[in-house]
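[job 4471] stage=fold_predict status=RUNNING
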Amino acid sequence: MEKFEMLLELQKNYDIIRENSKELKNGSFIYLLKKLKDDFEAARTTLKDRENELASLKKRYKEINERINGYKKEIEKNEFKLYNSAGSDLKLIDGLTKKVADMKQAMADLDSQSLELLEHEDKLSFERDKLKLKLTDLKKEFESVKDTGSRKINTAKEEISKAQERVAEMEKLLPEKTVKSFNDLREAKGSAVARSDHGVCQGCKMKISAMTMDKIAKDYSVVFCDNCGRILHCSDKESRL
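[job 4471] inference complete, writing structure tokens
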């Protein structure tokens, strides 16, 4: 492998290390997990509130039915007195008649309340069932994001490890001075090597001087771009032009 190809390989693996290091530091994965957890807790709290409302509503419904049944028994007792014991006592008849009418009206009011409670119960039950589905979906999404994130992290760690091994191999094969120049440039500019394309450095996109192109053609050990300082290389075809 030619020196420049080795430097390109070195740069490629440093790029792999840099990109995968960004993946390890990426907080979006943790942020999304936290958001899903917060959404789950909020939905669970709302579900608990709805279940408490339903329990309270059912208790009220039961109390209303007990009162209705109580009125029914009282009405039966008073109607029995009205038709069997009042005789011609007009005052007693009027009193019993009014009492029965009042209790029937109260019972009708309670029936209306009972219907309203049933309608409200249907609404709360619908919301509760939706919340249960939402909790199930949030839990599945949380597990999916967690698994995906874990795989990405493990993959990034593996890629970094492989790239670090390859970097060590390349640096052993290259002259120490060349490695130092490469690392100095990489730290300063992000990339240390660039190809020449028709006399233009692909690192800074500036035209390369004829003197520098001549050095490349004569296969100097290391040739630097006049403008950005990156290590340069051009194809055999271009170097002969």
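[job 4471] summary: The longest helix spans residues 90-173.
[job 4471] exit 0
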